[in-house]
Design brief:
heterodimer; A: about 450 residues; alpha+beta; Sulfite Oxidase, Chain A, domain 2; Immunoglobulin-like; five-stranded antiparallel β-sheet; 10 helices; 24 strands; about 15% helix; globular; B: about 350 residues; Cytochrome Bc1 Complex, Chain D, domain 2; 3 domains
Chain lengths: ~450, ~350
């Protein structure tokens, strides 16, 4: 395909043409365009209308208008269109060394609204994923409780459930960018982020059932059933607040990669605490200091101290369209669209800058705006063809304003891996090419 | 009175009353709101799963293990991935390195302040010894978690500490002396919990203001992706939708673009799933040989079924001194797919 040269912007529908073809079109040789279109759409042949009469996509009735389509349940579990294959979960080469202790990033550049399709939810596994037999899965609750108890999936799914929409973000999301620009697109800068409607039973209900010790109980430990038996400490007041023992995402059971049949949902808290394949909750009086609370998910500060239990995902936002690695096709109107979220509550406002943070305008927040959930923002922009730097800045209902990278680095240095919630900058070049930059 | 005896008495039948009395003998739960949902865990069940060890060593089973035994365990079950001295960066960041004798005195690892050690190793960050013991006990070896005995966990934990010069070669780590060793950890004073990122009501440490007009005097780009890295994540053209206001930019040359389109062989997914890639690279040696070297050696000489059998058996001596463990969890069919994939020139 054509690599755009500065000053030339590819216009739809010619954008599938090479520069030479575009030149032909520009020179008025429309027949050339027609030939290219005919070649591009198989099965039109004989009835091909002259391009000069209009758009061949309208004039030449396509196969699907003239034939019989497929029957119901041809695909018993529906799949996306084959034309959408480019949007996939992807790994960032060099980030991790082995696939079973790795991350795949969600293609945020292609999402609409706030819900992540289940098949594109980001993945992070420490010791590989499993498709666990749900009839043999058990949840145990023990520790500082009157009675340690065991629940089957049958038991749990009989209980009164709640369904709530929340984002999940890995504590290391945007971690590669602490020091400098490292990755090209929003998939890799921000794609350890997803948002679903989760269904399950509030953890508080189960803790009540077991008679947890209200005096001595201060923390709970969540533990997974996989080889890593991931363990994370959660303060008891958080556990009693809005934490859910969930079996469903977006109306269907959890996907195996996301913890089927049971995971913890810890709204606002980094993803590692949302323990997958959840097998046990223990009530205790002190934190557990597990491997992923001592060796990882700790934030290295300039004085060499590591901050431990930095769990909350603070207010953050990013423009997803247009974003790094994309190419604007035309000058003129563009709907600049992105997502914002806060681990402390609701997004209150999102401002957008087109000049690298000098001046800002308030964007439109789409509904719903829910607590600890993604919010979608949109703002109109006329691109006149000049260079620009796009940024978004979110504010939550505690009044906290998403910081600049510079401000984060002033306090935390540049050696941390976690909790980079800085304002993201996308540079738009005169060619229309958008790239990841830091200012 | 629990819900059970009340129900029994209301219905009046003797059988039920007796049943109710039997129920009463079980530990009483405070008034369940959901009768019949869940059941008490037996002590054996709790014991089977509740294996966590806390920083104050609550939960640590009694036992001990020598550095000498630890070396044996390490060489057999750990070194293939983590390196003979825990220094390997192939499968995961190094476990050992970057700590100095002075750090043991201060409890603060100097290299974390100066940043002059290339990696942040496990021992540089470790502040609570329980974390290391608990993690090895629950999760290592990576491909066979929970297969070590208590003695082996003590032993190999002690061996790692020995590799970091924290305990001597004749040391025997035990539940009796583990607190003393805790007090020698190079980074035992290296953690802080004083920040606002745990409590939801806590305050963030970095503040910005919602300035709207003329907020910056000048804007300079301080960092951008170098040209050579444009295609490092694959052709971005193929990672964006074909319609809409934007397209992905073309970052690959034509040849490269064609290659990324080539359909992935199912062997690739199996290799990831069975952690083959923890020890094998496609084009480069990791712990085991590069898969393309395996192809070069056997293509046309060895049939896929034989190679599949070799994969399942594991072995040693063909490519070097490091053994490949038997792949017990791998079905014959999957092994065949993997062998086909390797002989076809793994990608």
């Amino acid at each position: 395909m054509a690599t755009p040269t500065p000053g030339r912007v590819q216009r739809a529908p010619e954008n599938f043409l090479a520069p030479a073809d575009i030149a032909e079109v520009a020179a008025g040789r429309r027949g050339f365009l027609r030939a290219a279109l005919v070649a591009a759409s198989a099965g039109v042949a004989a009835t091909a209308a002259r391009a000069s009469q209009g758009d061949p996509a309208i004039l030449n009735l396509p196969e699907h208008t003239r034939g019989l389509g497929q029957p119901v349940a041809a695909r018993a579990y529906g799949l996306p269109s084959k034309h959408e294959e480019s949007l996939q979960r992807r790994e960032s080469p060099g980030l991790t060394r082995v696939g079973a202790a790795s991350v795949s990033f969600a293609p945020l550049q292609g999402f609409f609204g706030i819900i992540t399709p289940n098949g594109l939810h980001f993945e992070r596994h420490h010791q590989g994923w499993w498709d666990i037999d749900p009839t043999r899965h058990r949840l145990m609750i023990n520790g500082l409780v009157k009675e340690a108890r065991v629940y089957t999936m049958d038991d749990l799914m009989r209980l009164p459930s709640v369904s709530r929409m929340h984002f999940i973000e890995c504590g290391a999301n945007t971690g590669m960018e602490w020091g400098n620009v490292a990755v090209p697109t929003v998939q890799y800068t921000h794609g350890m982020l997803s948002c679903c409607e989760f269904t399950g039973v509030p953890l508080s209900v189960l803790l009540d059932e077991c008679g947890f010790d209200k005096k001595r109980g201060k923390f709970v430990l969540a533990e997974g059933a996989d080889g890593s038996s991931m363990t994370r400490t959660i303060p008891l007041d958080r556990a009693l607040d809005d934490v859910i023992v969930a079996w469903a995402m977006n109306g269907e059971m959890l996907r195996p990669e996301n913890g089927y049949p049971l995971r913890l949902v810890v709204p606002g808290i980094q993803g590692v605490s949302w323990v997958k394949w959840l097998r046990r909750i223990e009530v205790g009086d002190k934190p557990w200091g597990s491997k992923d609370e001592v060796l990882h998910y700790v934030d290295l500060m300039p004085d060499g101290l590591h901050r431990q239990y930095t769990s909350i995902q603070e207010c953050k936002s990013v423009i997803t369209t247009p974003s790094g690695g994309q190419q604007l096709l035309q000058k003129g109107f563009h709907n600049v669209s992105g997502i914002a979220w806060s681990g402390r509550g609701k997004v209150k406002r999102v401002d957008v800058s087109f000049d690298g943070g000098k001046n800002w305008q308030t964007a439109r927040l789409e509904t719903p705006v829910l607590t600890k959930c993604l919010a979608r923002f949109n703002i109109g922009w006329e691109w006149k063809g000049g260079p620009a730097i796009l940024q978004s800045r979110a504010m939550d209902d505690t009044g906290y304003v998403q910081p600049k990278l510079r401000q984060l680095r002033e306090v935390r240095g540049a050696r941390s891996i976690y909790h980079n919630n800085a304002i993201q900058s996308w540079k738009v070049a005169e060619s229309g090419e958008v790239s990841n930059v830091q200012v | 009175m629990s819900r059970f005896d009340r129900r029994g008495l209301e219905t009046g039948g003797w059988g039920l009353v007796i049943a109710a009395l039997v129920w009463c003998a079980l530990p009483a739960v405070a008034q369940s709101r959901f009768p019949g949902v869940g059941r008490p865990a037996t002590p054996a069940e709790v014991k089977a799963w509740d294996i966590d060890v806390r920083p104050d060593f609550t939960g640590l089973p009694k036992g001990s293990g020598s550095v000498a035994l630890g070396m044996k365990v390490w060489d057999e079950k750990c070194a293939s991935c983590h390196g003979t001295f825990g220094e390997s960066n192939e499968v995961f960041t190094p476990i050992v390195g970057g700590t100095r004798p002075d750090d043991i005195k201060t409890g603060r690892v100097k290299a974390l302040v100066t940043g002059d050690y290339p990696q942040r190793t496990t021992l540089m960050k470790l502040s609570t010894l329980s974390s290391l013991w608990d993690y090895i006990n629950r999760a290592m070896p990576w491909n066979a978690p929970k297969s070590l005995t208590i003695e082996e966990v003590y032993a190999v934990t002690g061996y790692i500490l020995h590799l970091g010069d924290i305990v001597p070669a004749d040391f025997v780590l035990s539940d009796a002396n583990i607190r003393e060793v805790q007090n020698r950890l190079p980074n035992r004073n290296g953690k802080s919990q004083l920040h606002g990122l745990w409590d939801v009501r806590g305050k963030g440490d970095v503040q910005n203001a919602a300035c709207m007009k003329e907020c910056e005097k000048s804007v300079t780009v301080t960092s951008s992706l170098p040209d050579y890295a444009r295609n490092a994540h694959g052709n971005l053209r193929d990672q964006n939708r074909l319609i809409g206001p934007v397209r992905g930019i073309v970052t690959a040359s034509r040849g490269e673009a064609a290659r990324t389109v080539a359909a992935a062989h199912p062997g690739r997914a199996l290799a990831d799933q069975h952690a083959c890639m923890a020890c094998h690279g496609v084009t480069h040696k990791v712990v085991g040989p590069a898969l393309n070297d395996v192809k070069a050696k056997y293509a046309g000489k060895l049939d896929a079924a034989t190679l599949a059998a070799n994969i399942r058996k594991g072995g040693v001596g063909v490519w070097g001194a490091v053994p490949m463990p038997a792949q017990t969890g791998l079905s014959e069919a999957d092994a065949k797919t993997l062998a086909d994939w390797i002989l076809a020139g793994a990608q």
